[in-house]
Batch of 4 targets.
Target 1
Amino acid sequence: MKKFISVFLGIFLVGCVYSVGSPLAFPKIECSNPKNFSKSQKDNLIYAYTFGAKQGMGYIMAAIAWQESCAGAYMMNFSDPSAGLYHAHIPVVIKYYSNYKDSDFTRNVMGQMLIDDKDFASQIALSTLLYWYNYHKKNLKNTIKSYNKGFKWEKDKTSNVLAESYYKSITKKIALLQSYLPPHLALSQNKNQITAQSNSKSLPLAKSSATKPTTTKSNATNVAKLSAKNQAIANSFHNRQTQRQSAKTTQQNTQAESKMDFEDYHLIFEGY
C-alpha cells in the first residue's frame, strides 16, 4: 500500500510540473529609447513634463519619471521601499505628508496611493524639487543631486559619487527628451483643443451668458485649490526640513545628531 501511494504521488507531482509548463518570463519593456516606449509610457512623460513645466521643472520631472520607474512601467521598488511614477520613498512620504505612523500597513496604503494617483505623486515630486532648488539658490545641478541624496552628498564622498552619477543620467535623459517631447507635446495640445472645441459644439447655445462666468469661476476655483494644495505641501516639507536643519546646527557634535542626520536627511526619492 505504501509503495502504491509513493508511486501515485510521484506521478501526480510529475503531472503538476508538466501542467505548469515553462517558467514565467518577464515582459519585455523598453526603457532606453522613448521613441520605442508604449503609449502609456509616452503619456506619462507628457504628464510629468506638463505638471512641472510652469515651475520650470518640466524636463527634469519627465527625466526623473523615466529614470525611476521607466516612465511608469515599474511603479514599485520593494527594496527601498518606494512607489509611484517618481518612486517616492514611502516611509518619508508617510512622515512628511500624512498624520499616520509608519507601519507595514500604512506603507502598503501609501504605496498604493502613489501608484494610483499620479497627481498626488507629482505634487510631492515637484514640491521636493522646488525645496532643493530654493535651498541651493537656483543651482539645478545641486538640486538634482540633493533630490537623489539629500544633504548627504555634501559631506560624504560615496554619496557624492552616486549623486553625480544620478545627475549625469538625468541630464542625458533631459537632452534626449528635449528633442523627443516637443512634437508630442504639440500633438497632445492639439488633441486637447480639438476635444474642447468638439465638446463646446455639442452643447446647446445658451441665450443667457450666465453659464460662462459659472464655468470660468469653477475653473479658477479648481486652479486655486490645486495651487493652494501644492503650496501647502511645499510649505509643510520646507518647515519640517528647516526644523531639522536647526536641530542639526544645535547638536552637530553629538551622537544624537549623527543618528538624526542619517534618518531624516536622506532623499525622498531614491535613484537606482
Target 2
Amino acid sequence: MPTVLARDEARYDGHPEPGQAPENSCGWSRFLALAACRNARFRFLSSAGAEAATCVVLRVRRGRRMLRHVVAVVPVGRTLDLVGVARLYGGSSAGYVPAETAESLTGCAPGAIAPHTDGPGLELVLDQRLRDREEIVFADVRPDVSIALNTDDYLTLARPRTAAITA
C-alpha cells in the first residue's frame, strides 16, 4: 500500500507552490525530457563538486555590428577566453550579455541556463576540457541539485561546437 509523505518529505515534482515562481522551469525541463526520451545516461547529484560546468551567454561582435549570441559551456572556475570565442565565430570581440538579455534569449535566469539551445538565434559551444571527461556535471539545475550527464550522450543530444575556450 502506498505511503503518503508529509509535505516536507515529498519529492520536488516541478510544480511551484501557489504564488511562487517555478525554481527552474526554463530549458532544463525540456533538456532532461529530451535526454530521458533518447535514453541518455544521467544521474542527479546533491552537490556538483569541483569538476562542475556552467553556462554563460555571450555576445560576439565584429566592430560595432552584432554577429551572434553564444551559450558557452565551461568548467566552473576557469577563465573564459573571450578573444578566442570571438575568433571562433569570426568576430573581433566577445563579451558577457546583461542578465536581462540572457534571460530573454534562453528563458532562464543567469546561473540556471541549460546547456543546449532550441532555436537558430543562439549558438552552443563546449569547452574542449569538458569533452575529454567521461561525464559532465552541470551545477546550474537548481541550488540543491546537479546533474552528471554522460559526455557522449550530451554531445549527441546538444550537438555543441567544441573548442578550447578557457585559459
Target 3
Amino acid sequence: MSKKIFTIALFVVSIFCYYAAGVSPLSNWWLAFLGYINPILFLLNFVLLIFWSVKMSKQCIFPFLVLLLTFPVFRATYAVGELKPPAKGELSVFSYNVRYFNRKSHVYFDKDYKSEPYYSTKFIDWVSKVDADVKCFQEFYTDDDSRYYNTIKAIDPDSSYYRFRALDTLMVNDSRFGLMMFSKYPIINSGMIDFSQNAMNKAQYADILIHDDTVRVINLHMESTQLGLDKGKGYRKLASLNTWRKMKYTTMSRARQVEEILAIAEGREKVIITGDFNETPYGFVYRELADELNNSFEEAGHGFGFTFNLRGYKFLRIDHQFHSDNIEALSFGAMNNIPYSDHYPIIGKYKVK
C-alpha cells in the first residue's frame, strides 16, 4: 500500500471512529469500541502531518483535517489547563476508590483476625489527614466493631463532617461496603441510585449548602469491565469470546447508568459529578457527560492525569470530575504519588459563581 493511499484510508477510518464513539452502545455496541482507538489514530495522523509537511506535499491536508476535527481527543488526553489563583470561599472535592482499604478478603474476613493490618492502617491514616471540603469514596469499607477498620470514626473522629452513607451491610460480619461522602457543609437533601444488585455499582447525590448556594455533588461507581486485571489476566484474555461478551455487557450497562446520572443532574443549577467511571475519555459515557458539563481535567488539569494504579495499565484515566457552567474549575489533579489503592485519588478545587 502506497503512503498516499494509507494517508487517505487513515483519514476515512479516523473520522469514522471519532464520530462512531458518540453512538450509544444501546443502539450499536460494537461501534462504541471504536472510540477507544481514537488516541492511537490521533497520534498516527500527527506523525503523518509531520511526514508530509517535511516533504511539502499536499497530502498533509488529510492528517491536518483529522487533527482539527478530532482535537477533543487531544484535550481529553493531555491537559494544559490555565493556572488560576485561589478564590475566596473555594470548594475542594476529593474522590478516591479506596478498594476496601486493602482489607484482605474483605467480604469474607474473619472477625477473629488479631494481627494489625499495617498497610491498611497507614492507608486509613493518610485518608483521614486529607483536607477537603467534600470527600467522596468508592469501594468504601467500614466495620464499627473493628479495632482497625472503623474507618468512618478514623476519618471523622469528632463528627466535624456531615455524612451521607450509601453502604450495604455484608452478611458475613455486619461490616459495610459501598459509597461514602463527607462534607464540611450541611447536606440538606440526599438520595441514592442502585445501578445493579452489585453493592459496588451505585451513585449517591447530596445537595450541599455552601453559604447561600446549593451545589449537588454526585458520587458514583459505574460498572467495571470485569476483566480480572488485578490478577494479570487482562491482555491474555482480550482474544477470548467471553471477554468480549463481558465488555459488551459492561459498556451497555454504563450507557444506561449515565442516563440515570444525567437525569439527577438535569435542572440543577450547580452540579459536580465525581467518582470511578470505569470509562476512559474516549468512550460514550465520557462524551455524553462532556456534552452537558465541563470536565475538570480538561479545564484545570496538567499532563496526562492517569488515575489507574495497576501494573501494565497505568496509562488509563478512568476517574473523573465534571461540573456545570456556573462553577469554575481552579485546579484539578491526580495524586500519582499515593500508592495505596489500585486507583489514584483525584482532587478538584472550584469557585462557585
Target 4
Amino acid sequence: MESKQEFGQGILYTITNYIYWLFLSNIYFILANSIFLFFFMTLQQSFSNIILYFLALIPTGPAISALYYSMEKLIRTKELSPTKDFFEGYKKNLKDTLLLWIPILSVFFILLVDFQYLQGSNQILANVMLLLMIIGATLTMNILAINTRFKFRIRDIYKLAVYYSFNKFKNTIGGMFIIFLVGVLTVLTTNFLILFISSIVAYLLIVNAKGMLNDIESNFLKTSQAIQTGRQ
C-alpha cells in the first residue's frame, strides 16, 4: 500500500514539474519574441507592413532554437532548468541560427507575397504556395532541430534536413501534421494561440524528430566528442 502511495506521489511530482518547465519555457519564448509582439499589436495588420514584420521576426529563429534546446534536453534527460537551459541554448546557437534563419525567413516571405498575389487570380497556384510553405515549415523545424543538437557546417545542416525529410518520411508527415493542426487551431481561435502552446508544440516536434537526431548521431558523428554542447 505504501509503495502505491509513493508511486502516486511520484507521478504527481513529475506532472507538476513538467507543467512548470513547459510553462516557464513558454514565458521565455514569449519574452524572446517581444519585438514581434510589439509590432503585431501596434501596427495595422496590413500586407503593406510586411517588411516590418520580416524584421520583427528575425529574433524568432533564435527563440525557436532556444526552445528546441530546452525541449530536447527535457526529452533526453527528463530534467530541465528552464531559465538556465533556455538562455544557454539561445546564446550558444545564436550565430548559427541567424545564418540559417534569415535565408529561410526570406524564402517564406517571397512565398507569402506570391500566395497573397495569387489568391485573387489563380487559386490553384495559391494553394501550391500554401503547400510549399507547410513543407518549408517542416523542413525548417528539422534544420533548427539539427542545429540545436549538433555542430555542422551550415550547408551540411541544409543537406541533412533535406535528406531526412525523405529518409524519415513518416516523421516528415508527422511534422507536417503538427504544423497543419496548429495552423487550423490558430484560424479557429486566435493568432496568439502559438504563444500559449509554443513549448508543447516544440516538445511534440522534438519527439517527432527524435529518430532523425538519433540516426544522425549514429551515422554522421565519428565520436561522441563531436556532439555539440547541446548534448552536455
